[in-house]
Structures are given as structure tokens and as C-alpha cells.
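ok new one. same drill as before - C-alpha cells go in, u give me an amino acid for every spot. 141 of them this time. try not to just spam alanines like last time pls lmao
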């Protein structure tokens, strides 16, 4: 992942998320909203806005990491549906949202964007989230 321009996490992602670690390709970040299990993968590649801009090998790695994260999150949180999205309308830096959804959650069955007022995690909640997802986070390395 060498580049002439260094990777820098977008300030909105920095402000709205909590670091969970790194995968082979990505920053792994917890959305700071305790209402739903919600993790972002942000490829550590400078100046990338879209998946197709990544080299093919990194595209495949991103798909693998996304699938591994999705399966691990569904196992850990026993959701009814798993949502993956790469919108980028507010933050242009490429990032993939991974959200476990539950029938009857506050935004169900619609999308979560613009529906929920974030309820930030406290330190205990962050530690519990990390513990539930520990084996998945380890597998992403």
C-alpha cells in the first residue's frame, strides 16, 4: 500500500467513528452509535473514492474482508439482515458501511441514514463490542 500521497482518514470518519484496528487493507472503525452494530472498512489507500479505482488485487481483498466482517458480525450479534453500503455522498473517501439490522430496530425496514440520532458508546460499550467481535477482528489481520 505504498503511494506518493500518504493515506489520511477523512476528518468526518475520524470524528464519527472509533478505531477497532486494522485489517490487511483497511482501517476498521466502529460507528459511534450504540443503537446498531455498525462497522466501517476504510481502505488505507490515498485519494480513492470508488471501489473500481483500487487495483484488482485490492478490490478482491476488500471483498474478502467485507464478507469476513459481515459473517463475523452476524454471528456475534444474531441479526435478521446484514446491510453493506458504499455511499460516499457526505464523505468522498472510500469506506464501506457494515450494519447488522434487526426487525423492529428504530429504522426498520428502511435505511439507517437520517433516521437515528446517534447514541454514543461509553467505554464499557466499546469494550463489550470489541470482545464480541474479537475473533473476527483477529481474522481480518
Amino acid at each position: 500500500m505504498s503511494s506518493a500521497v500518504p493515506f489520511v482518514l477523512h476528518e468526518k470518519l475520524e470524528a464519527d467513528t472509533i478505531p477497532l484496528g486494522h485489517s490487511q487493507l483497511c482501517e476498521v472503525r466502529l460507528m459511534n452509535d450504540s443503537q446498531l452494530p455498525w462497522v466501517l472498512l476504510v481502505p488505507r489507500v490515498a485519494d480513492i473514492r470508488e471501489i473500481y479505482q483500487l487495483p484488482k488485487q485490492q478490490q478482491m481483498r476488500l471483498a474478502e474482508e467485507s464478507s469476513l466482517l459481515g459473517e463475523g458480525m452476524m454471528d456475534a450479534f444474531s441479526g435478521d439482515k446484514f446491510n453493506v453500503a458504499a455511499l460516499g455522498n457526505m464523505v468522498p473517501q472510500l469506506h464501506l458501511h457494515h450494519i447488522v439490522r434487526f426487525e423492529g430496530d428504530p429504522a426498520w425496514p428502511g435505511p439507517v441514514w437520517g433516521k437515528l440520532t446517534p447514541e454514543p458508546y461509553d467505554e464499557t460499550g466499546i469494550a463489550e463490542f470489541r470482545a464480541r467481535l474479537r475473533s473476527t477482528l483477529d481474522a481480518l489481520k
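Helices lie at 11-16, 56-77, 123-140. and btw The domain at 11-108+118-136 is CATH 3.30.428.10 (HIT family, subunit A).
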